[in-house]
């Protein structure tokens, strides 16, 4: 469905992505995570045909999407702070989108308008940041496009609205499986929804694995410094807290029986690190 092969892209002389590759052929929900400025939006623009790679190939349903309407018809890209006409109401924005996407689900649109308490008569320019995100999400999900790309869809939404968004996304995807790529800074919240995760860091794809695989990694060990140093055997931990003769370290290993056994043998406590903390440390260290 999507293929990125040895893609390099930069704005003028600023290089953003260098020789990145990844492929997705399953109708899954995929999260794209990276620090601010890592290149998530840039990657989404390349996938939706808004930008052309400087080098390498991007393919959507087997076609290069840049300037190609046959390819772009399969994609609904809702960018962060999507530009809508200043004179449009919510209803106008939805009507325009419904003309554009041939699989548009109007029943879903009406249900989501109620869930997000969005007034159709309101001018888009008068919506709050969160309500505008809700509108973009409604368009993205109602489009039923084969490839839906949502750039930070929960931007500005409070915790309750984010919960509603995740639930609607899960239900819609279960009813109509399709490829949904979404970038997020709320990885802890979004991970139960996603099958896999792409981490962009240092202009590269640092990780592209299933969520189940990635969330095994990152372990906190705590206890006597001398014992932990012995286990680390000169390797640098991802994070360290020292308190007298005790330390707590995060290490880049899976939280499995082997490590539980090692911790128990050395009289150390062991716990799983949060995915968000693990990723923050991985992108600090890499
Ligand atoms: N139109 C542009 N012209 C020049 N540089 C740009 C442009 N758009 C983005 N950049 C730069 O490209 C880099 C990647 O930006 P991008 O928006 O893709 O990152 P991001 O991962 O989506 O960031 P964030 O999480 O902060 O939204 C940044 O250094 C940014 O300053």
From TrEMBL:
Example of a GO MF term: ATP hydrolysis activity
Domain ABC transporter: 2-227
Annotated TM spans: none
Gene3D superfamilies in alphabetical order: P-loop containing nucleotide triphosphate hydrolases
CDD domains: ABC_DR_subfamily_A (cd03230)
Pfam families, alphabetized: ABC_tran
Protein name: ABC transporter ATP-binding protein
Species whose genome carries this gene: Cytobacillus horneckiae
Organism taxonomic ancestry: Bacteria, Bacillati, Bacillota, Bacilli, Bacillales
């Amino acid at each position: 469905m999507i293929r990125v092969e040895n893609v390099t892209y930069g704005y003028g002389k600023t290089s953003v992505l260098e020789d990145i590759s990844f492929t997705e052929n399953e109708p899954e929900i995929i999260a794209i995570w990276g620090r601010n400025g890592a290149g998530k939006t840039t990657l989404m623009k390349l996938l939706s045909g808004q930008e052309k790679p400087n080098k390498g190939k991007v393919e959507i349903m087997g076609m290069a999407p840049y300037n190609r309407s046959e390819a772009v018809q399969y994609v609904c890209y809702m960018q962060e702070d999507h530009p809508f006409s200043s004179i449009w109401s919510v209803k106008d924005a939805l009507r325009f989108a419904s003309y554009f996407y041939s699989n548009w689900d109007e029943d879903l649109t009406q249900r989501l308008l109620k869930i997000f308490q969005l007034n159709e008569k309101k001018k888009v320019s008068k919506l709050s940041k969160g309500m505008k995100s809700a509108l973009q999400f409604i368009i993205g999900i109602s489009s039923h496009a084969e490839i839906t790309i949502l750039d930070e869809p929960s931007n500005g939404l409070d915790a309750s609205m984010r919960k509603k968004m995740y639930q609607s996304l899960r239900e819609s995807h279960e009813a109509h499986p399709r490829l949904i790529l979404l970038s997020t800074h709320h990885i802890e919240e979004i991970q139960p929804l996603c099958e896999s995760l792409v981490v962009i860091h240092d202009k590269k794809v640092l990780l592209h694995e299933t969520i189940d695989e990635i969330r095994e990694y990152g372990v906190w060990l705590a206890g006597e410094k001398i014992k932990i140093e012995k286990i680390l055997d000169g390797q640098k931990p991802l994070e360290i807290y020292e308190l007298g003769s005790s330390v707590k370290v995060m290490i880049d290993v899976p939280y499995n029986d082997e490590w539980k056994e090692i911790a128990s043998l050395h009289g150390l406590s062991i716990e799983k690190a949060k995915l968000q903390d693990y990723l923050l440390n991985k992108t600090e260290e890499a």
